[in-house]
Amino acid sequence: MPVKIRLQRHGKKGKPFYWVVAADVRAKRDGKYLEKLGTYNPNTNPATINLDINGSVKWLQNGAQPTDTARAILSYSGVMMKHHLAVGVRKGAMTEEQAEEKFKAWLEEKEQKIQDKKDGLSKAESEARAKALEAEKEVSAKRAAAALPEEEVAEEEAAEETTAEAEAPAEEAPAAEEAAKEEE
Hints:
With 184 residues, this protein is an alpha+beta fold. The chain contains four helices and five strands, in the order ββββαβααα.
């Protein structure tokens, strides 16, 4: 019975979530599986991968073939590295302790890279927020500056109207007096 390490899709439409499983080649994609090895969530940045490393190595040593995507996930999480080191131990190229030391060093380096990426993403996000806030402040200042002259113009027009009204009755009074004299 040939076995593949592959992904089983779960999650809702547009939001995929995968289980990494060891399954018979003849089984359906989301059908029966032999063992669940972990999960893969591509919706987060960076993608979240939780795997049983020892269980995955056991299946690889027993002949399970990973699909292309599953191989990339296994490689990213260190399963392929551990499998490679286990083959070296079996051939006598190194001892078990040396293999464990190399694997731990590789894991620490990988975790550092992942943490650096997360820090870079959070820094870029905070910079983008700061730029957006600065742009919003500029737009707000321009609106306030544009509204201020309009208010001043409106105040000047109102002042002109009041002075014009005050002058208009004074002009009408002499005209009214002349009209009254003519009638007499």
